[in-house]
Each structure stands twice: as C-alpha cells, then as structure tokens.
Amino acid sequence: MNCLSPSILSADFTKLGEQIALLDQAGAQYVHIDVMDGMFVPSISYGMPVIRSIRGCTERIFDVHLMIEDPGRYIDDFVEAGADLISVHVEACGHLDRTIHAIREKGVLAAAALNPSTPLTGLDYILPELDMVLLMGVNPGFGGQKYIPYITQKIRDLRQMILRAGCQTDIEIDGGVNFENVTEILDAGANVIVAGSAVFRGDIEENVQTFLRMMDR
Prior knowledge:
Blueprint: E1 3-6, H1 16-26, E2 30-36, H2 48-54, E3 61-67, H3 75-81, E4 85-89, H4 96-105, E5 109-114, E6 132-136, H5 151-165, E7 170-174, H6 182-188, E8 192-195, H7 197-200, H8 204-215
Parallel strand pairs: 1-8, 2-3, 3-4, 4-5, 5-6, 6-7, 7-8
C-alpha cells in the first residue's frame, strides 16, 4: 500500500493544529515529524513538547524522523510523546541493532534512515528487523531542496535487496518529492512518500488529494 507522509517542517506553525487537521481530512495516512538537533544536521527544529501538543489533533500515524546524534537516548521520550514509527539514522547510531530493538520493545514501528551517499550495505544484517527503510532524497537539514537523481537507482537496489531477503519492509523517500517526480519514485519501488513544501505550498487539501490520486496504484 502506498502512503503519504506530509512533513510538518513546511507547515505554518502559527496554524499547526489546523493544518494537521486538514491533512487528516484530506486522507494523508501519516504525519512526518522531522526532529533536528543542530549536530547531526545544521538546523534545529522541535522535539517532544511539540509532538505531545499536536498528538490530540489527529489519530494518523506519527512518523518521527530523528535527525539527531545518538538517538537511542531518547526513544522512551518520543514514544511517550506520541510517536508511532521512529526512524533513526545509520550514520548517527553507534549501536544500530540496540537502538532498533529498543524501538521495537516499546511497541512502535522501527525504521533505519540513510543519507544519500550512505551505501545500502549498512542494512545487511539489520534489514529483517526493520519495518521501514527511509532513504533521503536530499542531504538532510533543510526543506525545499531538489531531489538527487541517483536516489532513484538506490530505491531500485533497495527494493531488490528486500525481495531477496524475503522481507515486507516499506521504503520511504524523504526530500525533494513533488508532483513531477513522485511517479518515477513509486515506479522504482518506494511506497511511503514524504512531501513538505509540495503539500503545504498552496491548498493543502487539494495538494494531498493530488498526491493520493497519483499514488493510487
């Protein structure tokens, strides 16, 4: 099943609750929440208090993407705040296996994220333990960047890797996705699409519904 995960990093934070409600009404299945610490990536975004404050706005899956150093320190806190799915970066985890199992032990979905140039070999042993793999379509830290073309082949390679392993792992793409390239990305094998500015620029409900029509396959 293909799912849309709008990234609230591009939302109007003076109307955040209202805009999340619009995502819900339009049918988006996930809400993508980018947590940035100013260390793993240059920017600083938001953390547990914001997640906790918006949890009551929707029952959609809170897709929490931790772009932070040593994310294992905060798994309990993010689950308590309302996360349903937590992605941690391979590059940021000294003990990826331990962190993934800590997420699963809390009863939420676990994902590993990879930056554009990080090879898929970092997933060789952990793939069967993952509910999802998040591939960055841009270098993380800022919204509104252009999709890196070679990521499409990386998606194809990951889909083949998942098939060979006999897994049911989702592939999420985060960064630079828009109406012009989403079909190419889906055709390559992705099934969870993160979109920020392409959703929140203009009519939110109309943008979500356009994505969902394009993803209905």
